[in-house]
């Protein structure tokens, strides 16, 4: 979305004062603009400081959510985490896989919950990692697989073009509420086609942000269907400006977005800024609420959860 920020309290007070001095209206509106700018600046400084504080707190938390063995990687020749799961390895963690088409093995985080077999492609949990990254960084991937990361656009391409994949997006706000969105036929094209995104039918509880059709006139610019990937240093969007630069993350921007899970991390949810640059899923919490956590993960549509033959689970499966 592109539009004005919420009316500021300071502005209203000055405006009220100004109406009593109509003759001085020119200087009043100038003063109002100056104060509004100052207020926005202060809010940004506050948000930056809160984020910095949050990062410092995280650095002092040994182990965090992961156990001591969390950096152990299990080598496999499987094409994705669904095959890893089907082979009997049913604990969440780090695995090396080899998607067909990929020139080399890829280290991934396999999420074996929710039926198992999910290859995680993105995670935001605390703002420890910056997502305002270059084209090359998004191409190759960045971050920590046990914490916050982007798996890499080349890997996304190799994974999603070897079959028919479902993406599941799990979201949480700062009140502990959780929602999800699922899309069939999630596919990312190659770099030559700027990692163009296509996806199929939606199911879920978070709302269909990717198609952007919650308001018909908006779908033209809010839809992510068929959009190319953009970063601050490679503008492939439909906006006269640079969405990735304004919204501070790489994504399949249109003009600009109704979902941007790679935006700025705000530690309190509600935020104000000159553009809607938070971690956004518009149909759920709108443009001016930045979500607490986001996970995006892939699984073949035909994944077998194995729920019918649970008795065959190997007792030696790592836990
Ligand atoms: Ca542009």
Automatic annotation (TrEMBL):
GO terms for biological process: blood coagulation, common pathway; fibrinolysis; platelet aggregation; positive regulation of heterotypic cell-cell adhesion. InterPro entries: FIB_ANG-like, Fibrinogen-like_C, Fibrinogen_a/b/g_C_1, Fibrinogen_a/b/g_C_dom, Fibrinogen_CS. The keyword Signal applies. The keyword Cell inner membrane does not apply. One of its GO terms (molecular function) is extracellular matrix structural constituent. It is found in: Secreted. Keywords: Disulfide bond, Glycoprotein, Secreted, Signal. Its main location: secreted. PROSITE patterns: FIBRINOGEN_C_1 (PS00514), FIBRINOGEN_C_2 (PS51406), PROKAR_LIPOPROTEIN (PS51257). Residues 1-24 form the signal peptide. Residues 72-302 form the Fibrinogen C-terminal domain. Gene3D superfamilies: Gamma Fibrinogen, chain A, domain 1. This is Fibrinogen 1-like protein. GO terms for cellular component: fibrinogen complex. SMART domains: FBG.
